[in-house]
Fold each of these.
Amino acid sequence: MRRLVRLRCRLRCLLREERGSATAELAITLPLVLLVFGVVVGGVALAAHRVGLTSLAAEVARLEARGDAALAQSRIASFPGNPGIQRSQSGGILCVTAITSPGSGLLQAIRLTARGCAAVIESDS
């Protein structure tokens, strides 16, 4: 009987010592989980912005190659973030490079670049 009482006392002491350990573990792991979640969401946002920028560069190259500079300019103006556009032409190929920063805050330190090329269509007039 005494053994049972001692065993019960030891179990209670052990349980008292571990009180609050779940709270401490949660306090440590929750910020880490939120940090990882933020990095993943930021990465997805960067990838989506990069896809849009690549599409913009290709579309502007096609429009300017066929002579629709006004339509190309309106497409550039409608893209978020006011991207910088650089053009280069070699032979019959026009290449457009679009450069922008995605968003604000820490993301502004990142520069995204996309390039699109198209064959220049010569007008017969």
Amino acid sequence: MTIDEFLECAEACSTVEELGQAFTRAIEEVGYQNVSYVRIDSNGLLELPLVSMPGQFAQIYAECDCERSDPVFAEAATTTQPFYWDDIPNARKLTKLELQTVSVCRDAGAYSGLSIPFHGPDGTIDLIGVSLRDATKQDKRATARISALAAIMRRRYWEMCGFDAQSKRGPVVDVAHTGGPPGMTLSHCYALTLISIAERRRAMSLECLSRSINTHVDAADIEFLLEWGYVVERPDDDTFEYRYAPSPLGAQHSATCMHAKLLARNACSRLGIPLSERPKVNER
């Protein structure tokens, strides 16, 4: 697929999913299998617009807390040029945690790759990456072509979402959710996240958020979580009412789902929780 052909294909896409599939087909022609489009800042991940990775990669990445020691994120903050992951340790010595993250990612199916950073306002970075699932040698002659494809994909993504690519706030789209029971969406994950935050605050004797959460959570989402055993009802001795709380299964999901971690950051802001009472960026 030529650059012009991909441009035409991208313009014809009507959903983010179609756009991701088109980009994946384009980079497969130069030997890559994986695609990741993430938005990051100095605190780590902000959004996951597009992720096409093998098997349980996202879950393993989150469980191992790779976000805080990903050398690719660190490198993206220092350059505006495309870079190959293999070149990072040639420029500097990786820390023990960074080496561990590299090992985890390789075992999970992202062995080596190329990342293209697009720097925006306030330190935000749109980081598009393509990667291999094994030790196959990368053809670095394709750098310019992949960078052009990535630029087209990013521009079309923001255009589809109705935002300027230099907007300070990211678009809100119905990104596919990975993990959890069949049919789980970001809306279900967000409901579980809010319930988990409320329960955590209750355990710390902080202001109760149970009532305010009801204005942010759809009853159908709670019903879904109850049916799958991710949320349970517990009697509240203080209010003499029942409250929702995450079950062990729900707590495990919140601790290992990459989407849940990102949603928790946004939820704290939406609920007006003071900074002093919010979980640390990498707190699990």
Amino acid sequence: MNRIIVLASLYTASIWFGLVATGTAIAAADPYKFEMIVFEWPARAAERPAPPPGVTPPQTATLPERHVLGRLEAIASANKSLGPVAYTLGRKGMIVHKHLAWVEVPRGLDADAWYQVGDDRVGGQVRVTRGRYLHLDADLSLRDGPGGIPYDAHFERRMRSDELHYLDSPHLGILIQATRIEPAVSPAADDGASGEPKPAQPATIPPAS
């Protein structure tokens, strides 16, 4: 008898863990729309040091060996909503190098999955991963600073959906916002086809003859 109870408990536990794992996998597959602005602080250019005499600095940053999925610009086709923010940055004297919006299903934490991003002046690699929160990692380089010295900046941030996040460095900045894309609800889900019972209807009393 005890053996039957133990086996039943193990079976129930395996079903429960399976449901939890399935729910986690489904949640982890949620797509998000990301919108990112990469900008430069030109007013701070005078703060960058000049190279020592006789030294020719490198023109690009040396990044670790990574798995690059492609260019972020190639998948950036989502609608943008931060246009007024980018406009305000320009009015305040910042140079907006990239304003991109894309849809992506974030991979798990520490996934080696990066996108190349940038132009001739500012470029680097970006990735978004997901654990309990969304995480942004970015390595960017300002290639032609005064004296020819590239300025390298690393950004990382834990993010929540629907919040505008500002990441700063002495000469470069990032604004990024993540929006979870809600699954579409089919019409059948509204007419009781989801399997949930409908509320009982009151009895109709026939009229007296």
